[in-house]
Amino acid sequence: MFRRKRRLPIGGLLLAACLAALLWLTVRSAAGWLGGGVDSGGAREVVSDFYTMEREGNFGGSWELFHSQMKEHFAKDSYIQKRAHVFMQDFGVDTFGFELGELEEVGAWRMGGDQPLLEEVFAVPVTMTYLSSFGAFEIRQDVFVAQESGEWKVLWSYQGESDKE
């Protein structure tokens, strides 16, 4: 006797595919919520890229990730020279470790003083760890990101107590 093979109906296959797609979308959305809860579209990644370049001594590359307000604050040549001097000569290190905290939406923010207000700004706390001739130490800095010409760009705060919004 012949046994008839059991086949899954096409409707069952479509249902299974839809359920798999729904599960994938749910997991993907949950991962976004766990990553800071905001739809930043690369804001945290630009901070990671910035400090990866800094750690490698590529200060010219990291400078390129600055917002135009930061580029006004530091000329490229001056920035490269100062960063190399501080890290390599003053601290006596040639690299460092860094850790990024959770991305947080700040909203309207200004870099400092009389700088223009930026509307959609996010903050990422960065902790840099140095093993230097002075021992091990950490520097923690809130790094800000804002979009400029459709790209996320890095800013530092130069706000004094009287500048805060």
TrEMBL record:
Give the highest taxon in the source lineage. Bacteria
- Designated name of the protein: Uncharacterized protein
**Species the sequence originates in:** Paenibacillus pasadenensis
